[in-house]
Structures are given as structure tokens and as C-alpha cells.
Please model this.
Amino acid sequence: MFEKRCDVLIVGAGPAGASLAWRLGRAGFHVRLLEARRFPRFKPCGEFVNPECVSILRELGVESELRALGARRLSGFNLFGFGREASGRFVSLGRVMPPAHSGLALRREVLDAVVLRAARRQPGVEHHEGVRATELLYDSDGRVRGVRARGADGERFEIAARFTVGGDGVRSVVAGALGVRRSTPWLRKLALVTHYTNVRESDRADIHFFPGGYFAAHAVDREQFSVNLVVDVSAVRASPLGPTAFFERAVEDCPRLCARLAGAQRVEPVRGVGPLAYTTSRQVFDGAALVGDAAGYVDPLTGEGVYAAFRGAELLAESLERALHAGRADATSIRAYALGLRRELAPRAFFARLLQRGLRHEWIAAGVLASMQARPKIADLLVSVSGDYVPLSALARPAVWRAALRRDAEAARPAGGRAGE
Model:
């Protein structure tokens, strides 16, 4: 067994880990990036990034490449369910404008591979594929000092680092070793994902709600159409059907989606991941930190999870740079990252969980969809908030709601007359 050293060791090369490596490598630090699987690797995902996330992809220098590889522009969402339908767009709200005029839909394999390549181009970044972290290493004072790892050939070695970052997803080895992962029993979801060809395109994603779950469906490149089913784990386990038959039965029970897929061909097996309901009690430690899904999973309904990964990596990079320049590796030195998560991402994660609780009750979901159907500008408002460029605080401003209601009323007026005449 031998030892390697670096400034920052990142376990997991998904969007959070790779973008963190990109930022730290650009800042001149020596970074080792470990990934247990080989790229391109399948990753069940909603396969959508929202407008605020697009601005981060632009900063990373990969937006144009992703578009060239077939990423599709999505201007908003069509929402169906419980006898209602509504449509919302990403729009400007007062002085708040979307950083990009649309979100992007793309295969997760493409997104991950492109961001990883961008990270590997940075000086000081070393990528180790097929290497699995097996346990954390500690100094005598309890500080994390690296990991013990195993290569694809069975070779075992240790990697020492001033900071070790867990960016290894919802089943994070690092979070598990630190003992901070917590389950959310009421939000135990399973995602089943596949792709079709020969489906009519649209510039909006379709979301179909039904009791106990939803479908998200949209084009992800020039040929393929993604369909993502998210349901309670208990529903799948209680069914006598296997995952593929369960998925196909759910499509049949969703008339609009079934009609959309008429004549389409499924080109991949139905694959899944779950349960998805995890959070963490802490994200910073002496010599270590958690980022992305390893720090807490976000429901895939609106693309919030990928944004949380990229924005979390940005916040963590800022804290790590300051700590490394100061020669520190204690939890207090990167406390600003934890505060940033609490200030920026925790409220949105709470909002996502609140949304999920509401969607579990048909009468709440039907009422929200009815309001959005009757007042399209309110649908635009809520969809724009989901795009992460509008602060959640906007929902608490009466003026925002009055403006939305006023615009709807004006749009409903007959030409040449006033409302009520």
C-alpha cells in the first residue's frame, strides 16, 4: 500500500465534484478527483437544468458544447393532472430577469462527461476513474486526512489531502462514514427512467401529476425523448408487477402521456434509483465537507438538484480557497460554506419538500393547478421561481402577486372595452 497526496481530494465526479475540481484547479490547487465508475455512465435523472444553472454552465465554458451535442432549449413547463392543465414560462419579474432565456434538457451522461472534461483541462486536476473510496482516514486529533481506496485492479492505496470532499451522491460513502446521513421516511421515492424516439417535440417539459407521483417528459437531444416516473417506493413494492411493467402500466393510466407516446419506440430499458429521501445533519468537518446530493438530496421535479450541485460547489470552492491560503483545515475555516447552504439552498430544499407534501394530497394539487390554469401569470411566477433566478422571498411580496393578477386581468379584457363592461 502506498500513499498519494494533494490539496483537495474529491470523491465523486458528477456535476458537484467535477465543477468543484474545475474551480479549485483554476485557482492553482492540486486536486485529485475519484470516480468509482467509468464515464460515460448511466445516471437516472430528470435530465433538465434550469435557467440559473445554464448561467453556471456558461461560466464553466461548456454551454456551447452542450448545445452542439443536442441539448434542447426548454422555455417552461406544461402541467397536467386532476382534470386541470396549466402552462408556465421562465419570464422576467420586475427587475429580476432570467440569466438565460430557457433551461436546457440533455442526457445526464452528456452533461457529466462534458463537465468532467472541462475539469480535467484545468492545471492541477488529476482524475482517477474506476477508483472506489472504501473508508476515511483520520489524524490523531480526529481530523479527516484522506481516504483509503481500491482501484479497478484491486490495488489498494491511501490518498492524503488537506481537505476531503464527499461529492459521491445520494448514497455517499463519505457522508456514511461521517455518520451524518439521515432518511426522510415520508419522502421515500423511486425514480424510473427511460428514453423513446419518434416523439413530437415541444419547447416545454410536460409534467403529469397523479395520486402518489408524477411523470416528467421532454426531449433531451435531437432524437431522444426522456420519460421519468417518480412514485412512492411503497407503490412499487406493493405491486405484483416488475419495474418495467409497472412503468408501462403507469403510462397507460396517464392518457395525455400515452397519446404523446403513440407511435414512439422505447430504445432503452427502464432503469431506476431509490429510495431518494436523504439529508444530512452537518456538511462541514475538520478536514472534510459534503457537496451536491451527498449533502442532501433534492427532488428532481424542477431541476433543482443539479443547480444545488453546481451552486454548492461554487460556495464550497470559495471557502476552501480561503482556508487553503490561510493554511487551515478545521471546520470553522469553511463555515461560510455551511452558512451559504443554509441561506441559499436550504430554503429552496424546504420549498421542494413542501411542494412534495402538497402533491401527496389530491385536493391541494388540484387547487394549485386550477389557480395556475385560471391565472397564467401566476403559473409564470411559480415556474420562474423554480428556475432559481427568482428569490423565494418574491412569493412573500404582495406586490408581486398583485402584478401577476393585474396582468392576467388585463389580458382577459375584451378588445376596446374594460373588464366588466
The first helix runs from residue 15 to 26. The two ends are 85 Å apart (CA to CA).
